[in-house]
Design brief:
Blueprint lengths: L32 E4 L2 E6 L14 H23 L10 E12 L9 E11 L2 E10 L2 E15 L12
Antiparallel strand pairs: 1-2, 2-4, 3-6, 4-5, 5-6
């Protein structure tokens, strides 16, 4: 799979220090998401420190991957809906409104995982998404996620939840 020249959503999130997706967090997971048609895709390889039981991925890490993948997807969807490139103003940031993860079967910590998210609904500043989580071709988790736009650089600070 050729991932060179992909436009990763997280590369367009200035000053992001999030543990899951922050490009400015040396200790983080470095989630990288991109469009494949109408589906946002992320491929990620775990490390030994992220196991739960021996050889199995920690459930909190799975939830974090889903969460950060979907917040990047919500941001990218907003730009896409406006017909804009990711690096154009105004800048948007999203935070998790809800995260409902169903763990379907254990996930290997020794093999790459793939996340596939699709936007189900956009209503105002709320984006509803469904995310499937795969390992070795098997869906091991799925989630319903709501992302809330908490920052819009075209609005005054009084209208933003998050202030840079």
């Amino acid at each position: 799979m050729n991932l060179i020249n992909k436009k990763y959503f997280q590369d367009y999130m200035p000053e992001n220090v999030c543990f899951g997706c922050g490009v400015n967090n040396d200790q983080g997971l470095h989630v990288k998401s991109y469009w494949e048609g109408e589906v946002a895709v992320c491929h990620w390889q775990s490390k030994e420190q992220y196991h739960g039981w021996s050889n199995l991925m920690n459930g909190g890490i799975i939830a974090t991957l889903i969460d950060c993948h979907c917040m990047g997807t919500a941001m990218a969807q907003a730009y896409k809906a406006e017909g804009r490139e990711l690096n154009t103003p105004p800048e948007y940031r999203y935070a998790t409104g809800t995260l409902n993860v169903k763990y379907l079967s254990p996930t290997s910590n020794n093999h790459p995982v793939e996340l596939r998210a699709r936007v189900v609904e956009v209503k105002g500043r709320k984006t509803v998404m469904h995310c499937d989580f795969y390992c070795l071709g098997e869906k091991t988790a799925e989630a319903e996620v709501i992302g809330l736009r908490v920052y819009d650089s075209s609005q005054s600070d009084d209208n933003n939840v998050f202030k840079s």
